[in-house]
Write a structure and sequence with these properties.
mainly alpha; 2 helices
């Protein structure tokens, strides 16, 4: 009888690690799936940062083209009616 009581008292201590391991094994696929979703989707912060980076590149291109246009106009006034080249805000 004492052996049965002793075994019943020690059983939770002996299986405690197993329960944690089983819990980790059960939740692992869900954690992995969540990580994959995080890797494949773009957060709003990332989207804003990427948009800002793209707009700065477009504005830099527009600035370079406008400066080139103005240099050509200073050298030769022919055909200088107003800048109608690349505009970052009109780019889709």
């Amino acid at each position: 009888m004492r052996k049965l009581i002793l075994a019943a008292a020690l059983l939770p201590l002996l299986t405690g690690g197993c329960v944690r391991t089983v819990g980790a094994v059960v939740t692992a696929p869900f954690k992995a799936a969540g990580q994959v979703v995080d890797w494949t989707t773009t957060s709003q912060d990332e989207a804003d940062r990427n948009f800002g980076r793209e707009m700065r590149k477009k504005e830099a291109r527009e600035g370079r083209e406008r400066r080139d246009y103005e240099r050509r106009c200073r050298k030769s006034r022919e055909g200088c009616r107003g800048y109608d080249g690349y505009q970052a805000s009109a780019d889709d």
